[in-house]
Structure formats: structure tokens, C-alpha cells
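@channel anyone free to eyeball this complex?
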Amino acid sequence: MPIRSIKGALKVLVLVAIFFTGVWSQSSGVIDDFIWYLPDVQYLMVQHIWLTLMSGSLAIVVAIPLGIVLSRPKMSGVAESLMQVLNVGTTIPTLAVLALSMSFLGIGTVPAVFGLFVATLLPITRNTYTGLKGVNPALMEAAAGIGMSPMQRLFKVELPNALYVIFAGMRTALTINVGTVPLAFLIGAGGLGELIFTGIDLYDPVMMLSGAIPTALLAIVVDALIALVAFLLVPRGVNPARA
Amino acid sequence: MIRLDNLTKVFDTPKGAVVAADHINMEVPEGEICILIGPSGCGKTSTLKMINRIIKPTAGKVFINGDDTTGLDTQTLRRNIGYVIQQIGLFPNMTIEENITIVPKLLGWDKAKYKARAREMMAMIALEPDAFLKRFPSELSGGQQQRIGVARALAADPPVMLMDEPFGAIDPINRAVIQDEFLKMQQELNKTIMFVSHDIDEAIKMGDRIAVFREGKLVQYSTPDDLLGAPKNAFVESFLGEDRALKRLNLVKVREIVTNEIGTVMPSDTLETAMAKIDDYGYQNAILMVNERKQPAGIIDRSVARTTKGYCRDHFQAVPAVIGLDDDLRKAASLMFAHGQTWLPCVNEEGTVCGQITQRAMTSHLGARYRARQGDDRKPSAAIKE
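replying in thread with the prediction:
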């Protein structure tokens, strides 16, 4: 087979590499090692998903109304400074947040969910706030001018037009959430972090990877799922993905 | 009918109080378009937006069809006033149909009624309902979007409309088309309209009345013809521009200054008769020849009539131009300049000659108002209340 370009050569190279990795992992028994961890992965993954689901949905339920309240004209005096506080809050490492919540709530699932909730809250609130603030003022004037009540304006004009930005916030927040859940193991909440951290401690790369790879895959799946929901929920006229 | 009674707006700014509108008193009779015009910051937009309380008045009252709106709930008030803004403000998340039917829905119309209304509105603005109703605003051109904007404002059939530079963001060619369409619609709809513009030509074209604002005050409020003919002060004069006499050409119809007396000859007349008639009427260059149905058939030149013998039918030239009674003076002037004529024969709808229009008559009609004003400065100029 003649190779016509560098790109073609690279493709062939990658295929060859994959093939030999496969051959090597079969012959060295790595695949069998991974399969050995499969029941653990299944059990911990359920815990992992559960932690994400709890903290994530709690964050969405709190963050979106919070963003809406902050974006109201009456709140304009305090909103900016409060958003600054939230922004500073984002810079605190999640590990520190988890440690703090452990010192108040003890160990186990509850402090972990709380810590993850705090870490997830901020991006969603910020995007809800900026999304709503970013709605074209002409739309707001038109909506007011034709006699919509403030609630009708919010639900028929503001939210639909800010929805894409709000969903972008949820995507970022929940993807980070999935990637942060392994830390929850450190305060005794389980999850795939159990394999990762134990693998590091035991200097067992296969164990570590059998925690890390499913975490990464989970993050990708969550991101794709939210993208799909956004694609379906954001009205066609304001959905760049459907334009 | 819209009546403003001492409407005042004072903005508190860090630099102190700014009076955006200072005791504005005016009345727009039912079915008329009133254009608010003036330089930016003159209070025209504030005045307009106080009517539907986008800007809350500091003092004063707004009456719509004779009723004081002060006690009215803001939402109810706005749902009964059509509102069109320069930025159009169609909701991008809704289809064209949803945009148009939004006010009827707010007013609680049933589904069949507002769906039918949407199609009716589309027909009115000359856009194909089946092709457009299910589309989104972003898929339409600017001109089409503003037509939809007008349709949305008219959907619930409000008696009053407020328009804030509605055609300002549309390119000049489309703007002229939309203006014409809108005037045609208005002839049937007969809405009472307040319209903010910064373009004096648009104001003259669209307005039944024009209100000129300056620094929060209403300087002059009169019909376009009065405004151009008798500007109240130097500010209004400069605002109207140096060519304001020419702008009036648009407003005056040939019918208003046509002289019914016109000497004509028939093809069967001799050139001697023609010459005699030319002298009788005191024409300088030529006389019009008409056929038996009194339609213009040609002109007989004075020099030909004097030097030649024979019948008119053998010695006429083509009629350079005729003008209809309902054409405006702008067209008449243009035809005169184009053909080097000082007069034009006028024809009615059937095409029969009914008089003539001369350059001198046009000049004196347009000039009369200015001379009257120069001679008498106390002349009351239209309905001004200060």
C-alpha cells in the first residue's frame, strides 16, 4: 500500500501502535489484571455516580434559582459583589473544601456530597447570572413594552434566551464534579477514588488505572449527556448547535 | 386619540437633575400619525416611552381615547398599546407565529382565534404565512424582521401605537418600501400613532403632524406643510434644512394649484386660429392641441403658427409631458426641468385635459407662506401650547 502523505503515515503508525499494545497487554497479562478489578469497578462506579448525582442535582436546584435571584434588577446593588465572593470561592481547592466539610460534618457520604455541592454550585450560579444578564436589552424592552409581567418575561424571554449559557455552566460544573469525586474517598465516601488512591499507595498502576480510566470515561459520558439535553431543550432559534 | 397633559420627566443623574421632558402638552387626533422629531437628547424618546411607562413620568398625565391612564395597571395599559422599537426585539427563541401571537395570548384569546390572526397579520404585511410562520427570527432579513415587529404590535388590534425609530436600522431602499407599505396599511387601519424619528424626510413623508423637540421642550407642533411653510424660529428652520421649500413639493398636490383655464386647439383648426389663441391667452411658446376626446394630442409651436399656413394636424409636435391631478409638485417640477418647460398640461383619471400648471404658480404657492411670515411675525403658527 503506497503511503501518500505524512498524515497517512501517522494513521498507519497509530494503527500499528494500537495493534502492538493489544498484543503486549494480552501477552503480559495486563488485561487479565484489569478484568480482575471489574467487580470492584462496578461497585465503586455506582457509588461514584451516586455521589455525582446527589451533589450535582442539589447544586443545580440551588444554583439556578440563586443565579435568577441575583440577576433581578432589585438585586443589582449586591449581585456584583456577591458574584465576586463566589468567584473567590471557586479558587479554593476542592480538596480543602472537602477537608473543611469533614471537620464540620465528620466522615462519610454527607460531608462528601456537601463539599462536591459547594464546588459545583459556583460555575452554575455564575453562568446562570451572566446568561440572564447577557440577554439583549432590546428583548427586555420589547417584552415589557408589549405588556408581559416580570414572571412572564423571566420564563418566556429571559430563561429561554439564557438557557444555552446556563447549560454550558452545567456541563463544566458536572464534568469537574465527576473528576473531583475520587477525592471524596479521602473523607470516606468511597467512589472510584478508592482504586486510584489505593493503587498509588500500593504502587499498583493497574489498580490505579482501573479507577482512573472509568472516571475519565464517566466524565466524557456526563458531558455528552448534558450536551444532548441542551441540544433538545434549548429552543431552536437560540441554539447554536441547531442553527 | 392620545393627549399628553403637562407630561414631565426629570432624571436624577450624578451631575444633577436633567429635565428630559418639560411640561409637554399635545394631542394626536384619532387615526393620525404624529412624528416626534428633534436632535438626540431632545426628549422625544422619553416623551414616547412615558406613554407606555417604559419610562415612568415624573409628573403629568397621559390620556388615551379620552381616558386618563394614570390609574391603569401597567400591564393592561401596555397590552392595549402597540409598541415597535428600532432594535425590533423579536424574541429569537420563538417562531414568527409565536412572536406575532404573543399579545393575543397574553390577552387570553383562544387558540383558533390567535392562529387565524397570525395568518391575517402575515397577509397584511405581505409575507407568505406558510413560508414564514414556522421560521425563527434569525432566519429573516432585517426588513422582514421589522415587518414582523409591526405585525406583532398590531396583532391584538390596539387603538394606539408607539413606534421608536421603527425603520431606523433598515437600509434606505427597504426603508422606503416599508414606509410605503406602512402608510398603505395605516389608511385601512386608522390607528393613532406616535412615531419617533430623527429623519426629517421620513417625518414629512409619514407624519400627519410633526412635533419638533429641543432640550426637553416641544418647540413646534403642526402639520408638515405648516412646519415647512412657517417654521416658528431659527432652530426649527435650521432643523428643517436649507431646502425646506423643496421638501414642500412633496406635500402639495397638483390638484391644489392647477388653473382650470387652458387654451387648446383642435387638429382641424388652422394655424391662424392657433396663433390667435396663443396671443389671446398670452402664451409665450406654444399651445396645446387636443383630440375630440379632449386628450392631449400635441403642441403647436408659436413660431410654426406664425410662419406657416395650414392645419394644426399637420404641424404639431409631440407633447413633452403631462401631469396627473394627484401627482405631487415634486414630480411636476422634475418633469418641467427634464423637458425644459415652464408649464405642463394636467390630465384627470380618464386622461382628458383639465387645466395646466405653471412654474410661476408653483413658485408663488410655495413662496406665499414664507412671504406671509416675513411680513407678519405675530402670525400664529399652528397649535402650539407652551
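from a first look: DSSP finds 17 helices and 16 strands in chain B.
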